[in-house]
Design goal:
The complex is a heterodimer of chains A (about 110) and B (about 425). Chain A is about 70% helix and about 0% strand. Chain A has about 110 residues and is an all-alpha fold. Chain B has about 425 residues and is mostly helical. Chain B has two domains: about 375 residues, no CATH class; about 35 residues. Chain B contains 15 helices and two strands. About 0% of the residues of chain B have low confidence. Classes of the chains: A mainly alpha (about 110), B mainly alpha (about 425). At the A-B interface, helix 1, helix 2 and helix 3 of A face helix 1, helix 6, helix 7 and helix 9 of B.
């Protein structure tokens, strides 16, 4: 019985690296965005059974807290602009990673 | 039309029906977490999943080649018998798939298919007709290793997501922004599902066509119409199946947070896409479940409910032999009665499918028959509502407490001094 164990190692390493790069970039993008003073407050699209319903008041409170934190940011305007730019760059890189992964599947056939 | 060709047509119809039930069964693999965290509206999620399953089916054919060009040694099976055996195997897969869906048992559509096919071939021809090397390396080992791989990856990336966005100054961390990311990662899971699961049907149809000479035996590549038909069937199944899940979704995924959902989906899609590239025919349900459990463990203050994990694992283990058993029974009819056996199999299967369908219509939609195995895996990990602080948070809290105590002491000393002075 011929089992190619290297294939399993390859799948693990590629999957781990791909997922880690994607999650790191996206998390960094959110972190930089928060640092730039634009802390994301994204309400659930719809309240299914799984989500504790967030009232409008709670949502506004979260938005206010984000605004307050942004106002009190110790960064200068230039630093904030840099952080925002970095955040957009990370988001764009996330897209590149995803597209790259799909292209690898399409053109990487015949393994 | 000769009998063998007629049976191949029956195989194609049943394979496409299996593909439909596969989409039906697995909608939640991609969309359970984004709906549970509120990243996507249920209607949008299901439509997106259907479209991406359709697109994903066109991306790769490696898994289809594993099914059509390696699992079964078709050269050792007579051309008259083989289509009937594939038909028997498909009956095993479809019946097991529908039964587990109706009973809410965790199961894998892929393993139901392989189990049915292997069971029917073993009974119809014997051990020599199954390539156990390929079964082991491309089906059984990936089935055992993929959920653990996905769980480990999900655990690591959940830790990364939380640590990179953690704030120690008490200000909002913006983690709800992971809902944006979930739209893309869940789409990627749906795409990955299309690349892996739709191909299994393509492989079966190609295998049947090779046996009657409609396709050359040295060419395992599926025809373009087969790709189109399989892609459409899985997309349609995904779209129709999703509506039942929406109504009850969330019983097992109440604890999933956007950052965790994002990490789990990233792990699921990376594992499935990497596996598809090397032709591993793994179960997307198992990978998605492994990721949900792994990402749950990646959060602070989480604990595994081993009893639930055991139940899920038992469901996975039983699928291959159970579907194999049904496939073997159907194959026995073919071996004993020939073409009449195929006809009897078809009638019995049709009656059972209609019966199960009517039963599912009569029975109200509830958590037992509409929940996915993935949602159940959400209950396998218990996360504390107030998790213990990280070491850094603990150090900061201790420092603040010490500072507060020092301030208090200074204040008291000052008050004492002024009292003494008076």
């Amino acid at each position: 019985m011929n089992i190619e164990w290297m294939d399993f190692v390859q799948v693990f390493v590629i999957a781990l690296a791909g997922a880690a790069v994607l999650v790191t970039l996206f998390s960094l993008a959110l972190r930089l965005r928060a640092a730039s003073g634009r802390i994301p407050v994204v309400a659930p699209a719809e309240f299914t059974d799984a989500i504790a319903v967030l009232t409008d008041k709670q949502q506004r409170r979260e938005e206010k807290a984000a605004e307050k934190a942004a106002r009190k940011s110790p960064l200068s305007d230039a630093q904030k602009r840099m952080a925002l730019l970095g955040s957009y760059a990370c988001f764009a890189l996330c897209g590149v990673v995803v597209v790259g992964a799909i292209l690898l599947i399409v053109f990487g056939e015949g393994h | 039309m000769e009998t063998a060709s007629l049976i191949v047509v029956l195989v194609i119809v049943l394979a496409l029906f299996f593909d439909f039930t596969n989409g039906f069964h697995d909608t939640a693999n991609a969309m359970a977490t984004p709906i549970a965290t509120g990243a996507l509206k249920p209607k949008t999620a299901v439509t997106l999943a259907a479209l991406l399953n359709l697109g994903g089916a066109f991306l790769s054919t490696e898994v289809a080649k594993t099914v059509s060009g390696g699992l079964i040694r078709e050269e050792q099976i007579s051309h008259d018998l083989f289509p009937s055996l594939i038909f028997a195997g498909l009956i095993g897969a479809v019946l097991w798939n529908m039964l587990t869906w109706l009973l809410g048992l965790p199961s894998s559509s892929s393993h139901a298919l392989f189990g049915g096919l292997i069971g029917a071939t073993l009974v119809g021809v014997g051990m020599t007709a199954v390539d156990f090397g390929v079964v082991m390396s491309k089906v059984v080992l990936p089935a055992l290793l993929a959920p653990f791989t996905a769980a480990v990856i999900a655990f690591v990336v959940t830790k990364i997501a939380y640590s990179l966005t953690r704030r120690y100054d008490g200000k909002p961390d913006g983690r709800s922004g992971f809902r944006w990311g979930q739209i893309f990662t869940s789409s990627l899971v749906a795409l990955a599902h299309g690349t892996n699961d739709a191909q299994k049907t393509m492989g079966i149809i190609t295998l049947a066509m090779i046996t009657v000479g409609w396709q050359a035996s040295d060419d395992a590549e599926p025809h373009i119409w087969v790709v189109f038909a399989a892609a459409s069937a899985i997309a349609l199944g995904t779209y129709i199946g999703g509506w039942r899940i929406i109504r009850t979704l969330g019983k097992g995924l109440t604890d999933v947070k956007p950052a965790q959902g994002f990490a789990a989906e990233a792990s699921t899609s990376a594992t499935i896409l990497a596996s598809s590239a090397v032709g591993f025919a793994l179960s997307t349900t198992q990978v998605a479940s492994g990721s949900v459990i792994g990402s749950g463990l990646g959060r602070r203050g989480s604990k595994v409910r081993w009893r639930t994990v055991g139940r899920i694992f038992a469901g996975w283990v039983i699928t291959l032999p159970a579907a194999g058993g049904v496939g073997a029974l159907a194959a026995l009819m073919v071996v004993w009665l020939g073409t009449w056996g195929v006809a009897i199999d078809a009638v019995i299967a049709l009656a059972i499918i209609i019966g199960l369908f009517l039963y599912s219509r009569r029975d109200a939609v509830d958590s037992n028959n509409a929940m996915s195995a993935v949602s159940e895996s959400g209950t396998a990990v218990k996360v504390k509502k107030n998790p213990p602080p990280t070491r850094r948070a603990q150090r900061i809290a201790e420092r603040r407490a010490a500072e507060k105590a020092a301030r208090q002491a200074r204040k008291e000393a000052k008050a004492k001094r002024s009292e003494d002075a008076r």
